[in-house]
Amino acid sequence: MSSDQSATKSFAAVEKVEFPRTNVGKGPVKEAKFLRNTWYVAMFSSDLDEGQLMHRTILNEPILFFRKEDGNVAAIIDRCSHRMAPLSMGKLLPGDRVQCIYHGLEYGPDGHCVKNPHGNCTIPNASHIRSFPVVERHTLIWIWMGDNPADPDTIPDYSCLDDQPELHVTRPGYINVKANYELVVDNLLDLSHINYVHAGILGNADTVAADVEVEQDGDTVTVSRNCPDAESPGILQMMSPDGYERGDQWNSITWYAPSNLILEFGVSKVGEPKEKGTGYFAIHLLTPETDRTTHYHYTASRWNVLTGDEQNRKIRNNIYEMRTFAFADQDVPVIEAQQVVMDQAGESVKPVLLTVDAGPARYQRVLDRLLKDEGQ
Taking the CB of residue 312, how many other CB atoms lie within 10 A of it? Predict the structure, then answer.
């Protein structure tokens, strides 16, 4: 495949079936539980401009993000304590103050109400709202949703996004998935599905029989598949020079609790070490929006790039297009349909486990333990 082709035209999308929702129960099959004392990705740093008020719903809570005059990011509840109007509809004033559009109350970046323009201008203690710790790292804005002290050292390592040439990192992508975040994690940790849902792009007939290996390091779970002397899937052929049409390939995806992942996907010539090959780190950042919706941010960073800059300009765009197609047109229709079918089935349905489910089963045990430790 040449890198100047439209990278997705030759691959089939999954037809999205619209299931009736009239029989959906009041709650999901498994009541949604969210780990709170951890870091979630709110957005890419590039999504939040100076002077902008940005709303995000995270773990069912409305959050307002804005940049302070020193460039750092603040996050407070997006809800005025007076009449519950969204503060994101208001104005950002000098001095890092957010003015409510409804009655003009003003709030600082710590959530304290700093001005009541009415009556004797007294500020009731109950007028203050919650603020959240925020860290900007690896081109991402992270938010801590829990009550425990926030530890920036526990942010997952996505340093592969730092200080890379622009041509080696794809532009940021975002999808709002209408399903619980755990269904998306299940999908990503199940590397076997790429041979069917993403045939031609990420997998093919040569990669079906690869064995799955699962490793756990503390609360981190890694699922790997190695495919020696196999036809290279389309995305690897597209980013490689001539001579990589076949090779030794590998997928290795690591899950960081509760919902951030990084996948290393690469190919080397048959019999040669991985270090001589090429590939990319695929970044998957899942943040629960509600019980049944998920913020899905993604990007990719190439390693050991073996192609020239003129070709890399086209490859950069094609990687974004191919991965977006794989997610939006192939994975997401299946995952969203799963959510509807599971809701309709209620408590009576339990999935049958196969050998390919070793990764999802392992991370689920870790997540259940962490939730239990938080008293959930």
Answer: 19
Q: How far apart are CA 174 and CA 298, in angstroms?
A: 6
Burial class (CB in 10 A: 0-12, 13-18, 19+), 45: middle
H/E run at residue 308: none
Pairing label, strands 61-67, 54-58: antiparallel
Per-residue pLDDT of the chain (376 residues; tens, 9 = 90+): 444 444 444 555 555 555 444 444 444 445 688 999 999 999 999 999 999 999 999 999 999 999 999 999 999 999 999 999 999 999 999 999 999 999 999 999 999 999 999 999 999 999 999 999 999 999 999 999 999 999 999 999 999 999 899 999 999 999 999 999 999 999 999 866 554 444 445 555 555 567 789 999 999 999 998 888 888 888 888 888 989 889 998 889 999 999 999 999 999 999 999 999 999 999 999 999 999 999 999 999 999 999 999 999 999 998 898 888 888 888 899 999 999 998 888 766 777 887 778 899 999 999 999 999 999 8
Helices 181-189 and 358-373 cross at an angle (nearest 10°) of 140
Degrees (nearest 5) of the Cα angle 284, 290, 294? 20
Among left, alpha and beta (phi > 0; psi -120 to 50; other), residue 52 is: beta
When computed from its CA atoms, the radius of gyration of the chain, rounded to whole angstroms, is 23
Give CA 151 to chain center in angstroms. Answer: 20
Cα–Cα distance measured from residue 212 to residue 234, given in angstroms and rounded to the nearest whole number = 21
